[in-house]
Each structure stands twice: as structure tokens, then as C-alpha cells.
Specification:
Elements: H1 2-5, E1 7-8, H2 12-23, H3 38-48, E2 52-56, H4 63-76, E3 81-85, H5 93-99, E4 106-108, H6 112-125, E5 134-135, E6 167-168, E7 175-177, E8 180-182, H7 192-195, E9 200-202, H8 205-212, E10 219-222, H9 231-243, E11 249-254, H10 256-261, H11 263-271, E12 274-282, H12 286-291, H13 298-311, E13 314-321, H14 327-339, E14 343-348, H15 356-361, H16 386-402, H17 406-412, H18 414-422, H19 427-431, H20 435-438, H21 441-446
Parallel strand pairs: 2-3, 3-4, 7-10, 10-11, 11-12, 12-13, 13-14
Antiparallel strand pairs: 1-6, 4-5, 8-9
Helix pairs in contact: 2-6, 3-4, 8-9, 9-11, 14-16
Bound molecules: cobalamin and iron/sulfur cluster.
Residues 2-3, 7, 9, 11-14, 16-17, 54-56, 58-61, 83, 85-88, 108, 111-113, 116, 178, 190-192, 223, 225, 347, 352, 374-375 line the site of cobalamin.
Length: 486
């Protein structure tokens, strides 16, 4: 739903895996199914006849689509080796391989730049189950290892066609770049920290500029989970970007406390063209923030919004709707959101495998249909009758969307819209009218009654992996140096 309305971004992870495979001597092609149709994909498979096909499964909601595509790929190209990788599948690798009826030969957990080349090499010498991160029907290799330096690979952006289709609201067209990887916080609803095993790594200013020089798009989305955690790094990249004479319209995501602590860094990036910033606000009361283990307060959030406004940066925030919300809580959110100038998004609290709330609440889920795990559907019991919950949710989302979409938005952003159209970019202008076509309470409700072919494995009430955060971490960490004795 997000992709149909607000944005569409390049698959940076796949581009990095493609680069690692090319460097290892393989011929690689990429097809982005956010843009191309299944029939384009099948045509590519038939004409190019690859020996191996890798699918990106960053999102849980895409599992059924990928399982279907894997099955059809095997029919079209029987000898072809099919594998899957990415964020979400790293937490449920065994079940996805098991559910594929033999169509997925293996899942590769963790960062694909390391495992991808090792996997294809192991295919040749039959040592698949020894590769770190590999999970097959026969068994699993050791845990995946972390890439020593995120500078080592460059996204294979040249392999993607129709790049003009990537945009983020008025940043049309828009490329993506990663300046850091991982997150040192541990929010209860998030799997960024479990995926990267609590690590935080930075791309060097030189490598960042090296990439930026090859990006023709005028706008760039910084994909970091929390941008500019380290102020010195933020400043060093800014210096390098300025020295190289690079000017872009930037978008980034960060935390309120990081903005408050590192204000001068964000001011510096504002001078370099920072236009939009996403702040993880999540809740309007301190009790919920504590429950989410956000390590932040509503007072800090209010101050951060004030600081961003003073800096002249447009801010988007997200609020997590609890399935237990009643009409009054939706109404309170609507009133707050209409009183602030920010873009307010509303998503539904969703327990994802790999998060603390999956461990705590998954035994209560009302559905195991992968497609409904997209933070727009309610998969936990709702206090309001489900259909009514959706009516309140969509009513609230549409009230919030009206602030920044339709005619009103067009008036405010007429200059940007005309500029985009003159450059032949239509993504932003089309987006302004798409909301009601994508968001609909009856459709959300009906989605719960579709036939289900593939679903998540029923969670065990006390999955031992969720008793201790340490056992959830996807990557194995290098052993700490032995403690020095006196
Ligand atoms: C950028 C981003 C987006 C972009 C997506 C851009 C794109 N086209 O990929 C946008 C803004 C559109 C987006 C939207 C959403 N996102 Co998002 N997103 C992210 C974010 C912050 C970074 C992803 C990224 O680009 N990282 C940098 C690249 C280099 O890493 P990567 O993609 O993970 O790739 C590496 C590995 O995963 C692996 N890999 C990847 N693909 C493949 C393929 C193969 C074959 C192999 C072997 C390996 C492999 O190797 C890569 C290199 O190391 C992550 C958080 C995170 N830290 O991962 C959340 C995250 C993935 N998103 C999440 C969510 C919830 C969403 C939304 C549902 C809701 C929302 N409001 O944000 C929507 C749904 C979108 C959809 N399509 O369904 C959750 C995932 C939930 C889940 N378990 O399904 C995450 C983990 C955030 C979180 N805090 O929980 N997102
Ligand atoms: S929500 Fe943000 S701050 Fe919290 S763990 Fe995830 S990436 Fe880190």
C-alpha cells in the first residue's frame, strides 16, 4: 500500500548482493517487481536462462508471492537453483524453505554480500550446508558473519531499468544510499537490531562520495535506520559531500533524541539540501513509549519537532495504533495530528518474527496469513469489532492524508509539481490522488477472508529463542579479545 501511494525506492540490498556476485565473476541481472510485472520476469527467465535465481524477502508480506514465483520458476527452468535472502526471511528461513514444496533450494540468512558468493561457489563443490547462513531442507550452516566493512561493495545501480520510477513524495525521482548499517537501540517492535546483532557500522566519507558521484538523480533517500548517531561521522560525510560539490535533496530517518543531541549535524545537512526527515515518535503517551522500549519521552519528541521546524526541515512521523484502541483514542490522534504541521502516518502494531513483541504476543495472533503482516492490517485481537477498527483506522489515515494530498497539496506544492512534470516525472503528481484507491476499510477487512495458501508457522507459546535476546541475533559476532590480566 505504501508503494502504491507514497513512495517507491530502489532495492539497495539486492543491488549490493548483485555487486558482490559480479565481483566473484558471475553474470547478474536484476528485475524489480515493484516496477515490472510477473510476465516480464518470466520472459527474462525464459530468454536468459539463469543457472541460479535469488529472491529478496525483506518483507514478510511478500512470502506467498515469492513462493509462487519460485514454483513457477522451477517449472520454466527445471535445473535452476532457487534461493531467497533478506531481512524477514532471516528469522524464518527453515519454515520458508519447508513451505516451498521443493521450489526454494535454500535460504541465505543475513547480509548477502558475504554469503552470496560463498553460496554459489559451494554449489559447484557440493558443500552448501557448510556456508554461513545457509538453510536447506537437509540442514543449516553456521550462523552468518558480518561484513567487515560496508565500504567494500557498491550497489549495482546500473543493473536496474526504469530508475525514473523511484520517488519519495515530491523527491521525484529519488535514489537511495546507505551511510551506516544497524542500530544500537533495541525497540520492542523492531527487528533492525536483532538482524544486525546490535552492531552499528559506518560507510566512510570517501566511499559515500564515491557512490554519490555516480548517482544522477537529484534526490537521495538515506536508508540508515537512525541517521547520524555518530555526530563526527555525520559531519565528516557532510564535509566530503560539500568538498565534492554534490548537491541533492536529501531524506533521512532518525530518532528525536539523536536530533536533539546532534543538532549542528542536521543544521549542516539542511545547508546541503536536507528536505525531509522521518522521526520515530510511535506514541503520544510515555507509558506506551516505555512499553515499546523506545528509551525516549513525549517531552523529547515535542522538543525535537520544535527543533526540526526551526531548522526548516519537513518532518514525517509515524504513530503505532494499538489493536486495543477505541474510538476515543483514534479521535485524540486525529486532533493532535491536525494541530501539528507535520506529516503523520499511522501503522498498526504488528508482531514480526525477530522482535520482542513476537516473543511476547505471537500466541495471541488472530491470523497467520503472511500477507496481513504489513503494519496496515490488525493481526492481534482488536478491542473494537475488526471492521470498525478498520473504519476508524482508514478514517484517521484519510484525515491525515488530506493535509498533504489532493488539491490542497497541489496548491502548496504547485512549483514542485510543475518542475517534476517539466522533467517528465509524474510519480509525485499521481501520488496526490491515489490515497482512496489504495486505502479502504472494507478491503482491509475482506483481506482477512481470502483463501490462505501459505501461512506463518503457528508460534509456540514459549519459543525458547525468545527467552533471551541474545539467541535472536541473526549474525554471529567476532569473539571479543581475551580480557587482559594484571
Ligand atoms: C529502506 C526501508 C524501507 C523502504 C524500502 C526500500 C526498498 N525498495 O527496499 C520503504 C520506505 C519503502 C520501506 C517500507 C516499509 N518497510 Co521498511 N525498511 C527499510 C529499512 C530502514 C532499510 C532497508 C535497506 O534498504 N537497508 C539497506 C540494505 C543494504 O539492506 P537490506 O535491504 O536489508 O539488504 C541486505 C540483506 O537483507 C540481504 N539481502 C537483501 N536482499 C537479498 C536477496 C538475496 C537473494 C540475498 C541472498 C540476500 C539479500 O543482503 C543485503 C546486503 O547486506 C529497513 C530496516 C533495516 N535495517 O533493514 C526497514 C524494514 C525492512 N521495513 C520494515 C517495515 C515494517 C516496512 C513497512 C511494512 C512499513 C513501514 N511503514 O515502514 C513498509 C512496507 C514496504 C513493502 N514493500 O511492503 C521492517 C520489516 C518488517 C518485516 N519483518 O517485514 C524493517 C526491518 C524496519 C523495522 N524497523 O522493523 N522500508
Ligand atoms: S525502531 Fe529505530 S531506534 Fe528502535 S531499534 Fe528499530 S531502528 Fe533502532
Amino acid at each position: 500500500m505504501y508503494n502504491r501511494v507514497f513512495l517507491r525506492l530502489e532495492p539497495l540490498g539486492l543491488e549490493l548482493v548483485a555487486d558482490a556476485l559480479r565481483r566473484a565473476g558471475h553474470a547478474v541481472q536484476l528485475i524489480d517487481l515493484q516496477i515490472f510485472r510477473h510476465r516480464d520476469y518470466f520472459r527474462l527467465v525464459q530468454s536468459w536462462q539463469p543457472e541460479a535465481i535469488g529472491f529478496c524477502l525483506n518483507y514478510l508480506a511478500n512470502v506467498p508471492e515469492v513462493l509462487d514465483l519460485a514454483q513457477k520458476s522451477k517449472q520454466l527452468q527445471p535445473g535452476c537453483f532457487v534461493f531467497v535472502g533478506g531481512h524477514s526471511v532471516s528469522f524464518i528461513a527453515e519454515e520458508v524453505v519447508g513451505q516451498s514444496a521443493g521450489a526454494v533450494d535454500c535460504a541465505l540468512r543475513g547480509e548477502g554480500e558475504v554469503g552470496g558468493p560463498l553460496l554459489l561457489a559451494a554449489l559447484e563443490d557440493g558443500t552448501l550446508e557448510q556456508v554461513p547462513g545457509v538453510v536447506t531442507r537437509r540442514g543449516a550452516g553456521p550462523p552468518p558473519t558480518l561484513l567487515a566493512s560496508p565500504d567494500r561493495f557498491r550497489p549495482a545501480r546500473d543493473l536496474l531499468r526504469r530508475r525514473r520510477r523511484y520517488f519519495l513524495g515530491p523527491l521525484d525521482p529519488c535514489a537511495s544510499i546507505e551511510l551506516s548499517r544497524g542500530c544500537p537501540w533495541q525497540c520492542a517492535f523492531c527487528s533492525a537490531w536483532t538482524f544486525y546483532s546490535r552492531t552499528y557500522r559506518k560507510v566512510s566519507p570517501e566511499a559515500a562520495v564515491d557512490q554519490l558521484r555516480t548517482i544522477p538523480e537529484p534526490n537521495v533517500y538515506i536508508t540508515d535506520d537512525v541517521a547520524f548517531v555518530d555526530p563526527d561521522h555525520g559531519m565528516a560525510v557532510a564535509e566530503a559531500v560539500q568538498r565534492a560539490g554534490i548537491r541533492k535533496g536529501w531524506y533521512l530517518e532518525t530518532r528525536a533524541d539523536v536530533l536533539l543531541r546532534n543538532r549542528p549535524v542536521f543544521a549542516r545537512w539542511k545547508d546541503l539540501g536536507l528536505k525531509y526527515m522521518f522521526l520515530g515518535i510511535e506514541a503520544l503517551d510515555d507509558r506506551s513509549l516505555k512499553d515499546f522500549r523506545k528509551h525516549s519521552t513525549t517531552a523529547a519528541h515535542a522538543e525535537a519537532l520544535h527543533v526540526a521546524r526551526k531548522l526548516g526541515i519537513h518532518v514525517a512521523v509515524n504513530i503505532i495504533a494499538e489493536p486495543t484502541w477505541d474510538r476515543g483514542q483514534f479521535e485524540r490522534l486525529r486532533q493532535w495530528a491536525m494541530a501539528v504541521p507535520e506529516i503523520v502516518h499511522l501503522t498498526v502494531k504488528t508482531p514480526y518474527p525477530g522482535t520482542e513483541i513476537w516473543g511476547r504476543e505471537s500466541h495471541r495472533v488472530t491470523t497467520l496469513d503472511y500477507r496481513l503482516f504489513d503494519v496496515q492490517h490488525a493481526v492481534l485481537p482488536t478491542a473494537l469489532p475488526l471492521h470498525e477498527f478498520y473504519r476508524e483506522l482508514v478514517l484517521t489515515q484519510s484525515v491525515l492524508a488530506r493535509k498533504h494530498m489532493g488539491l490542497r497539496a497541489l496548491k502548496g506544492a504547485a512549483g514542485i509539481a510543475v518542475g517534476c512534470l517539466l522533467r517528465g516525472q509524474t510519480n509525485f503528481v499521481r501520488m496526490l490522488w491515489r490515497f482512496s484507491a489504495a486505502y479502504h476499510a472494507d478491503r482491509l477487512y475482506a483481506d482477512h477472508h481470502r483463501p490462505v495458501r501459505h501461512q506463518l508457522r503457528a508460534p509456540r507459546r514459549t519459543d525458547p529463542r525468545y527467552r533471551c535476546a541474545q539467541t535472536l541475533l541473526v549474525h554471529s559476532l567476532p569473539a571479543a579479545p581475551p580480557a587482559r590480566t594484571a
